[in-house]
Amino acid sequence: MTKLEIGDKQFSMVGQPFRIVAGAIHYFRVVPEYWRDRLQKLKACGFNTVETYVAWNMHEPKEGVFHFEGMADLVRFIETAQELGLFVIVRPSPYICAEWEFGGLPAWLLRYPDIRLRCADPVFLQKVDAYYDVLIPKLIPLLSTNGGTVIALQIENEYGSYGNDKAYLEHLRQGLIARGVDVPLFTSDGPTDSMLQGGTLPDVLATVNFGSKPEEMFEKFKEYRPTEPLVCMEYWNGWFDHWTEKHHTRDADDVADVLDRMLNLGASVNFYMFHGGTNFGFYNGANYGDAYEPTITSYDYDAPLSESGDITPKFHAVRQILAKHMDIGECELPEPIAKKQYGLVRLTEKADLFSNLPQLSTPLTSTYPVPMEQVGQDFGFILYSTNVTGPRLNMQLHLQDVHDRAIVFVDGSYLGTVERWAPQSLKLDIPVGGAKLDILVENMGRVNYGPKLKDSKGITEGVRLNGQFLFDWTISPLPLDNVSSLQFLPFKDTPNENPAFYKGSIEIEEIADTFIRLDGWKKGVVWVNGFNLGRYWERGPQKTLYVPGPLLRKGSNEIIVFELHDVINPEIMLVDTPDLG
To answer: Could you confirm whether 219 is annotated as catalytic?
Structure first.
């Protein structure tokens, strides 16, 4: 039996001092075919441990329906790490943040309108317990105490940044123990008084998260835990991007310097991230500070491995520091994964959204608009339609609390766009005979951090013309989880401001990674062979979408682009170099 032991200011394993040198790789952000490649590179850089969150919404997408296959095969990911001689730290907290949709919480929780998240609310605890009854037994055989490679589990994630409910933390702790977890448990928080007071338990290992000033950060930690090992559970060596921002980067020498100083203090460290990967599909999260800020599709994070798994200068700078402090062996790297420029692809077919509503949605009626969670929908888009009597001149259309971006049509013609982060009204004239109003709302990712975590999507309050609420709506959920039923017609080069799907194909003989450039497109989503790559937006910073080679096949490959606005020339480029702005 191997067990990580917590001693006076240091860890030990099998009687010998042990320092955790870990890097974060999220299995749910990497296609399974590349897990071994990324883990091999982690080991080659000198790390002895991989750390991963567990995304609840990946594993219980519908209440009571569990999923542990494909990109959700957590067990296979951990077993692959063990085959390579890596230890594993698992963070199965109900909440993970991670810039991931809803911080990993499943959207169906919001169907319970009175639920209180991340506290000892009986309804929330009941849902967590039901999930843990399925998840934790899968982890028990993988614990180091049972011959596996998992050496520690997290109780909750940065809880002191959110709350201070010790009964909730203790419930999670006891739940892990009762289900058979006998490796060390820990918490992780920012190194401030309020966070360390709110997020820790007195007899549970505490760790801290930061990106710089290690001496100062650990001094604050030692005020609370003077005899515990020093652990930076999240060393933020890069950062993530929101739409409309510049791509974040950090100098490799600065990252190496901070690491060197941490190791000189005797600390253990976990790089957040070692390899970021991709927010495929609709799984990107969002922040809410002064306003709503959705995260981009790429989770490159300016990490030691790029989004597509390539070694960066930061990799070499980090390895050099690790070699200074410990024996890390030779740098045995796997063969590089090929990148290929396949060139221009013209999308020759088109399917108008409104014409294809019967193929995509089963509508329902409601007196008033309701959020998508209340109609059983998690992701994608939702369409609200009503008929308005006329005449009404010089009216102002108000979408009261729209989450997150709405495109408005009157009698099928584009009126304007309303965005959550810049609320506005639209001027509207209704003719004598009345008009049909269609409002297409995009869920751009639920808030994943902070007090505004409870983030329902769609129109959450109502729609007004001046001060009058409009009632009697038809609601069409558009999760877009399957676009195979769309009815395409040959594309005609005519102006069109309505949302539409565009389809084309490319013949491929040699499979390799590639990147889709969408120059000239406005905003939307891309599928390759039915796999949702994620969102694009002309506002950037991201200009390409990553296509892992395993998503392609020899022969014909289908590409579908859902464009929310219009495109003059429906062409894309498959290039061999990413552009993150």
So the answer is: no
Reduce the DSSP state of residue 305 to 3 states and report it. strand
The number of beta carbons lying within 10 Å of the beta carbon of residue 235 is 25
Query: Do 419 and 405 meet the contact criterion of CB atoms below 8 Å apart?
Result: yes
The answer to whether 158 is a known catalytic residue is: yes
Catalytic residue among 99, 101, 228, 234: 234
Structure token pair of residue 283: 């799984």
How far CA 166 is from CA of 119, 183, 189, 345, in Å, comes to: 9, 21, 14, 56
Question: What are the φ and ψ backbone dihedral angles of 303, each rounded to 5 degrees?
Answer: -90, 170
Place of tokens 């010790």: 166
Two structure tokens written together for 548:
């892992």
3-class secondary structure, 506: strand
CA quadruple 508, 576, 244, 572: dihedral positive or negative? negative
CA separation for the pair 450, 297 (Å, rounded): 21
* 3 state SS of 345: strand
* DSSP secondary structure of 395-443: EEEEEEEEESEEEEEETTEEEEEEETTB---EEEEE-TT-EEEEEEEE-
Residue type, 231: V
Whether the link from the prior residue into 495 is cis, omega within 30° of 0, is no
Q: Residues 6 or more apart from 288 whose CB is under 8 A from it?
A: 447, 449, 450, 452, 455
Between the CA of residue 137 and those of 133, 178, 441, what are the distances in Å?
A: 7, 11, 39
Peptide bond into 257 cis (omega under 30): no
Question: CA-CA distance, 154 to 169, in Å (whole number)?
Answer: 11
Q: Which residues of the chain have pLDDT under 70?
A: 494-495
pLDDT, position 495? 65
- The single residue of 99, 101, 156, 158 carrying the catalytic annotation is 158
Distances in Å between the Cα of 147 and the Cα atoms of 90, 107, 138, 579 are 16, 35, 14, 43
Q: In order of start, what are the domains of the chain with their CATH numbers?
A: 4-325 (3.20.20.80), 343-352+499-575 (2.60.120.260), 354-478 (2.60.120.260)
Rounded to an integer, what distance in angstroms lies between the CA atom of residue 168 and that of residue 170?
5
Distances in whole angstroms, Cα of residue 477 to Cα of each of 377, 380, 386, 443, 526:
7, 8, 15, 11, 19
pLDDT in tens, 211-224: 999 999 999 999 99
Dihedrals phi, psi of 555, to nearest 5 degrees: 100, -145
462 vs 470: CA distance, rounded Å = 8
Instruction: Please measure the distance between the N-terminal and C-terminal CA atoms of the chain and give it in whole angstroms.
Output: 49
In DSSP notation, 132-199 reads HHHHHHHHGGGBGGGTSSEEEEEEEESGGGT---HHHHHHHHHHHHHTT--S-EEEEE-SSHHHHHHH
| 109 contact partners, CB below 8 Å, separation of at least 6 | 115, 117, 124, 127
Question: pLDDT tens for residues 248-285?
Answer: 999 999 999 999 999 999 999 999 999 999 999 999 99
